[in-house]
Amino acid sequence: MRVLIVFATREGHTHRIADHIAEAVRRRGYEPHVVDAAATGDDFDLGGHAAAILAASVHLGTHEREMKRFIRQHREALQSMPSAFISVSMSAVRAADPTRDPDDREQATRDVVDMMEELFQETGWRPDRKRPVAGALMYTKYNFLVRWIMKRIAREQGGSTDTSRDHIYTDWGTLDRFVGEFMVHLDEAAAA
Predict the structure, then answer these.
(1) 88-100: pLDDT as tens digits
(2) What's the pTM?
(3) Among 34, 107, 163, 191, which is least packed by CB within 10 angstroms?
(4) What are the strands, taking DSSP E only, across 9-149?
(5) What percent of the chain has pLDDT over 70?
(6) CA 190, 46, 116, 59 torsion: positive or negative?
(7) Segment (H or E) for 25
(8) How far is residue 151's CA from residue 30's CA, in Å, rounded to a whole number?
(9) Mean pLDDT, to the nearest integer, of 55-77?
(10) Where are the beta strands (DSSP E) in the chain?
(11) Residue 81: DSSP 8-state
């Protein structure tokens, strides 16, 4: 069975996450089909897929517009199959960091939930499963202005300010567990 994996990204880290998900799906005996939401047109067909996993990065507090467009165009098909959503953000980094102030972690958790809920309200889609995932500071991919802004934000929030390299905060083990749980859900749906 084919599992559709759609991603939306700016600097490429969410594409890397989608490829990682594809490997986990393949290990479970399914055939992954990885697609960039920005490359899909009106004629893209979800037919032939047993399930869908969507992953989108967050910038300036909102998910990528390409993902919103994709969901709006394919909402009915997505609702009719097992589906999952992965929200990739730096807020998820703050929410998951046990060394942070508990109030800051709580606020970051609320921010992540609010951003996902905004996407679901805007598109009318409700996935079966959802998960926030820590993103990355892709300093080497940013232009000068974005690098400067992200460095300031990172400094204020206790992140790395070394702009000579990228900083990956994604917990791959947590992502693998989420995908594994979703695949069990898919197995159960297929057996029903």
Answers:
(1) 998 888 888 888 8
(2) 0.93
(3) 191
(4) 31-36, 49-59, 62-63, 83-89, 129-134, 136-137
(5) 100
(6) positive
(7) helix 13-27
(8) 40
(9) 95
(10) 2-8, 31-36, 49-59, 62-63, 83-89, 129-134, 136-137, 167-168
(11) S
Q: What is the pLDDT of residue 190?
A: 79
Rounded CA-CA distance 179/133 in Å is 12
- Does residue 192 register a pLDDT over 80? no
CA distance 59 to 119: 13
Domains of the chain: 2-135+170-191 (3.40.50.360), 137-169 (no CATH)
Task: Please give the Cα distance from 96 to 164 (Å, whole number).
Answer: 25
Q: What pLDDT is recorded for position 165? A: 93
pLDDT digits (tens, 9 = 90+) for 2-33: 999 999 999 999 999 999 999 999 999 999 99
Q: What is the pLDDT of residue 187?
A: 87
Q: Are 117 and 149 in contact (CB under 8 A)?
A: no
Q: Is the dihedral of CA 56, 105, 179, 170 positive or negative?
A: positive
Distance CA 48, CA 82 (A): 13
Token pair of 91, please?
């807020």
Taking CA atoms, 92 is separated from 21, 48, 86, 165, 166, in Å, by 18, 33, 11, 20, 17
